[in-house]
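User: Some background: our group keeps a shared notebook of sequences we're curious about, and every so often someone picks one and asks for a predicted structure to add to the entry. Today it's my turn. The entry only has the sequence so far, pasted here. Could you supply the structure so I can complete it?
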Amino acid sequence: MAVNVIVDAFGGDNAPLEVIKGCERAVRELGVKITLTGREKEIRACAEKNGISLNGIEIVHTDDVFDIHEEPKEIIKSGKNSSMAVGLSLLAEGKGDAFVSAGSTGALVMGATFIVKRIKGIKRIAPSPVLPGDKGNFVLIDAGANTECRPEMLVQFAVMGSAYMEKVMGIKNPKVGLLNIGSEETKGRDLEIEAYKLLEKSGLNFAGNIEAREMPQGNVQVVVTDGFTGNIALKLYEGMGSFFAKKMKWIFSGAGKIGAILSIGKIKTFRKQMDYKEVGGSALLGVKKPVIKAHGSSDGTAFFNAVRQAKRCVEGDVAGVIESYVARTASADKE
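Assistant: Of course. Here's the predicted structure to add to the notebook entry:
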């Protein structure tokens, strides 16, 4: 049976046109079913105007759209009839296998927590963007949702990140690194020191502490930290990516055009590696069913890849793997 991905048709800066484009391509190339939530007349009019087929796409009408400036908690109150909340409710009711939205991150985390619910035993849901490294991609978890954490929460982040990298990204026994201010196990705050001890006993492929400057090397596939530190690291990483892109353009302009022509293949490969559209979004790990947060400025390509990411989460049973690990850990703690 085809995977059914529910998509918020009005989340993001380029909705609904780019959402519809990405979903139409996903139906055609990935063989998925799509359920769009949002204003049906607008969706159909947009598709007709731009010559986009809605074959294989179901539309569930909602009158409201959750405004990105609203308080996240309103997603379960005044925003419960929005395209985001209705999509999450459909997922919780078993009327779809995964959910994608480019809307408010805070609202999506709140809605995923209280509508779809957390996996039993998981203390916090964590946004987990996949970032490029020299030796391959890695997942950063938590990237901003949980600014205050306990050591055992970082261990759960490591478990969830490992399950995602193995089942979705195809990396067996991924290495886990704890983001810190030094490589020694005595470095950091009480949070990192205690988390280090727990990670050593976790059974995961724990590689120890890593400093922020080591992240781009890609020597570990799961970088674990609290949401405050993780969000700073993420924003710096994104900013440096934009900085390098501008510098490359400057270097190869003017007299450097011949060099650019000779290096065009490598330049395109590098730009593709640094492009968030190629991944699609950040998985909210710890939810009972896959929820993907697409970038707010996503275009059709990014939405297509976000749907592909959701499909892989379903097929790899990422939530089930996380749930099994947490259950085994809980049982071991009682013995």
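Suggested note for the entry: The mean pLDDT is 90. The CA atoms of residues 169 and 296 lie 23 Å apart.
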